[in-house]
Amino acid sequence: MLTDKAVRAAASRDKAYKLADSRGLHLHVSASGHKSWRYKYRFENKERLLTLGAYPEVSLADAREKRDEAKKILRDGRDPRHVARRARMVSTGDKAKTLEEVAREWHKLQIDRWKPVHATDVITSLERDVFPQIGTMPLAEIDKPLLLSVLRKVEARGAIETARRIKQRVAAIYRYANAEGADLANPATDINDALKPLPPSRRYPALTDVDSIRSMIGDIERAGASPVNRIAGRILAITAQRPGMVRFMQWDDITGIDWADPHADCSEALWVIPAERMKQELHLRSDEAFQHKVPLTWQAVEALRAVRWLTGRSPFVFPGARSGLKPISENAIGYLYNREGYKGRHVPHGWRSSFSTIMNEKVERELGADVRLLADRLIIDLMLAHTPKGMSASELRYNRAAYMGRRRELAQVWSDLIMEGALPVEEIIDSPRRKRR
Question: Are residues 369 and 388 in the same domain?
Answer without folding.
Answer: yes
